[in-house]
């Protein structure tokens, strides 16, 4: 096993950034498995960077690594946060920094593992939105525009999120175009930032180096576990079926609550809201508006032990709703995979992140026994050894630095594009728009649209003749 005493020990005469390894990738690609396997080669400790796995509960649904499969490797920030608390990227950053410092002080290697890319961005980048708000709370700008700030604090407390979003749209259309109209937290943050500083959030953020590699807090080695999309899709479907057998239905049964808030805490996890319609129908209930409690019928109440049996039962209404929920969970997980892949491409193309890819496709297919160690573990170990003993990783990136610099200079993260042929889908920034236009779905819709227009032209010509 590698000795890290010389590689990651601070030297006052030659200060260097602390070295950390970051394992990234889409859901199901094998990030956690790789991180645990690395412990056979390096004295590592794992820091979880999955925004749902940090919470207590839903161990099956959030795919937490069971204790017996952790192989004695220390895991931090795993299942420790109350499920009703909002654990922000700033909370993660502040917690992870302390853990990293402690791990390094014991001559061990921190390995950050997870698919929540904005957690990782917050950790390695010096600029964070919440920090800016706090700094402005302490400055004199707050006093000089106190009346204006109170006005926006009052407005942002309004229950109607649409009102605040429209206000933001009037103040800063570019910033409003970058966020979802129901993202009340970010809407309030943007309004608060404008109230405190008088600066437009879009103008302020465009001048920042947030996410840029030249401003990283740590010396990072990024290992990205990747697999072909169709293989990941198949694996996701199989994994959801395994989760059903492992007790997923019991977990969503226990967390179910009428009129629950799905924008905070653990209930944001994919797989909770998907079962809401089914559980609402499955539980024969009355609702007491005064106590906000569900009153279950004693005669027709079905215990959660019967949930899985519904899949084999003749109870058509319940069975159909349950299958719809399971299929919705599979579909939304596949969408998450695509979002994560797009985000990794953006981090590399727009921010210049030096991502080193290892391919787990063969391993997920199960074509050969040695595909995982040969194609995933061994290349990752070689990469990390190079990283620890040299100033720079020797494995080349997919995008040359010169090309990446040109892209960074020309990046456009704020302009909103609307694609009418794709159902008025909103794309944010020039990069997303260009990637969308190259996509297979968009090209098929454009071809179909052109054919339909030509068909109408031909019909009109026939009618005239």
From TrEMBL:
Read off the Gene3D superfamilies from this record.
Answer: 1.10.20.140, Classic Zinc Finger, P-loop containing nucleotide triphosphate hydrolases
What does the UniProt keyword field contain? Answer: ATP-binding, Cytokinin biosynthesis, Nucleotide-binding, Transferase
GO cellular component terms?
mitochondrion
Q: Which GO terms describe its biological process?
A: cytokinin biosynthetic process; tRNA modification
What InterPro entries does its record include? Dimethylallyltransferase (IPR039657), IPT (IPR018022), P-loop_NTPase (IPR027417)
Q: Does the keyword Transferase apply?
A: yes
One function term, GO molecular function aspect: tRNA dimethylallyltransferase activity
The answer to keyword ATP-binding applying to this record is yes
Pfam families linked to this entry = IPPT
Q: Which family does the record assign?
A: Belongs to the IPP transferase family.
What is the name of the protein in this document? tRNA dimethylallyltransferase 2
Q: Which organism is it from?
A: Aquilegia coerulea
């Amino acid at each position: 096993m590698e000795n890290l005493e010389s590689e990651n020990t601070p030297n006052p005469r030659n200060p260097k950034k602390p070295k950390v390894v970051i394992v990234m990738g889409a859901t199901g690609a094998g990030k956690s498995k790789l991180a645990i396997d690395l412990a056979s080669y390096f004295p590592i400790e794992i820091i979880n960077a999955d925004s749902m796995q940090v919470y207590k509960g839903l161990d099956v649904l959030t795919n937490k690594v069971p204790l017996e499969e952790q192989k004695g490797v220390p895991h931090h920030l795993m299942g420790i946060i109350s499920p009703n608390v909002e654990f922000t990227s700033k909370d993660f950053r502040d917690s992870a920094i302390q853990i990293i410092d402690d791990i390094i002080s014991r001559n061990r290697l921190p390995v950050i593992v997870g698919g929540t890319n904005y957690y990782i961005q917050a950790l390695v980048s010096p600029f964070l939105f919440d920090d800016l708000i706090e700094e402005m709370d302490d400055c004199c700008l707050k006093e000089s525009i106190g009346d204006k700030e109170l006005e926006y604090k009052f407005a942002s407390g309004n229950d109607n999120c649409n009102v605040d979003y429209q206000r933001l749209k009037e103040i800063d259309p570019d910033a409003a175009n970058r966020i979802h109209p129901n993202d009340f937290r970010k809407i309030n943050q943007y309004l608060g930032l404008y109230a405190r500083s008088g600066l437009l959030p879009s103008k302020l953020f465009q001048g920042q180096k947030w996410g840029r590699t030249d401003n990283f807090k740590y010396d990072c080695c990024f290992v990205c576990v990747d697999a072909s999309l169709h293989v990941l899709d198949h694996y996701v479907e199989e994994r959801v079926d395994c989760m059903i057998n492992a007790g997923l239905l019991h977990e969503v049964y226990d967390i179910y609550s009428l009129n629950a808030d799905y924008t905070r805490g653990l209930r944001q996890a994919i797989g909770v809201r998907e079962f809401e319609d089914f559980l609402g129908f499955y539980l024969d209930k009355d609702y007491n508006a005064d106590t906000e409690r569900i009153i279950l019928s004693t005669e027709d109440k079905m215990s959660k032990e019967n949930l899985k049996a519904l899949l084999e039962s003749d109870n058509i209404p319940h069975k159909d709703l349950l299958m719809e929920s399971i299929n919705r969970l599979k579909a939304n997980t596949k969408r998450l995979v695509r979002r994560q892949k797009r985000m990794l491409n953006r981090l590399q193309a727009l921010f210049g992140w030096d991502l080193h890819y290892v391919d787990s496709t063969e391993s997920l297919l199960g074509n050969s026994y040695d595909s995982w160690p040969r194609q995933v573990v061994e290349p990752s170990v070689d990469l990390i050894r190079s990283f620890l003993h040299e100033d720079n990783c020797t494995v080349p990136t997919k995008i040359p630095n010169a090309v990446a610099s040109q892209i960074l200079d020309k990046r456009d993260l704020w302009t909103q594009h609307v694609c009418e042929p794709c159902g008025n889908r909103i794309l944010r920034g020039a990069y997303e728009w260009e990637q969308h236009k190259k996509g297979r779905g968009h090209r098929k819709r454009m071809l179909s649209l052109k054919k339909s227009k030509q068909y109408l032209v031909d019909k009109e010509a026939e009618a005239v003749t």
